[in-house]
Amino acid sequence: MITAFHGDPAVKQTLGDRVARHIADGTLVIGNTYWDGVSGSPLGVSVEGTDVEAYVATFGYPLPLAGMLDPLTAMMGMGNAANAFVRDWVDVVAPGADLSPVSAKLMRHMVETAQTDTRGEMLKQKVVALHSRDSAEAPVGRAEWSAVRNEISVARDTASDDSLLTGTLALLDAACWPAGRGYTPLSATLSACIDLVTQIPDPEWTEADNKRSDTFFMAMEQELQPRMAAGEDLDFTAICKEREPEIYARYEAFSARYLGRIRNRASDIATRCLTEMRSASAASRTLEFSDGLSQRA
Amino acid sequence: MANITDVKTADFDTLVLGHKGPVLVDFWAEWCGPCKALSPTLKDIAADFGDEVLIAKVDIVAEPELADRFGVSSIPALKFFRDGAEVSSMIGVQPRSKLTAALEALL
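Output (structure tokens, whole complex):
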């Protein structure tokens, strides 16, 4: 069994120091996995490379969880919340903790808390049930996962253009895999979760608003693009704001709500991730304590 | 970790066409972003199927003869073989569920 930091507090200290230094230096870049020798994504600065397997081997986090570090922080966006999460990702984990149960719990959380279409509810319960039963000791077989995925696939084929239903089914398709192993199950489900929140209709932004703003911005682009291409230094945003302040203000508010939904969903998943990692660390400490007692007895 | 076989022109016939059972061959190149995006999915599939399926990769820059031989003009190109015969193909990044369903149909 692989354990966090291989049970060595010095490994945790090294990682914590490295992450803190990059945050302080402004060389932690929230986004896709990358490392350029000086700056990088959370995973990039941690392993000073881009190899998720190196993260697993060096720091003892399970593969699905390690594969989620960069995508999850990217969804949180640049800023203090993402930086704090990257620090906490290390801080809350005790050396020697068995983090293997975290992936399945996080997967269940993502599926259970997704605002899914009622027509997808039965399939959602089937996916949750598979994750509840699946464990390292008694894994659910590939045929059972495939059978539920086939049901999801049939539902997708017959779904209308309803974006909420198709988003729900895409989420369930991404989640219908064993959560405890592999590179993609958590990161693909996270991506589908985020896509889904963007499909939920915004009652304050109507189809008429959409058409009006599209027409306006396209007209502005046609008007200003040739001048900008000719080298004129124009502030596109400021001109749009001045020309149609009401349309621009409504569009800006809509964009803020849209981005807010993404950030909120990512923050909720990040918070749950830290909770489960704390819980796994506490469970490992309890086990150590009871082992100590029995050894003394 | 997942087992994926790198195949060269010299050993393609033996490893892929001579293989009993399903084979998925990924034609890829280092410069191809979508190929890199597909890579973790292929590793997961290799782990899911274990010995039941051979997952192979062909670097089209290093092995242009194989790309020509199989008419690869766009990558990632995924070709499915069973008992030495090509049975189907897909182009572009594919979801894990679609690749899994295609392989299960060949078992």
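The domain at 5-104 of chain B is CATH 3.40.30.10 (Glutaredoxin).
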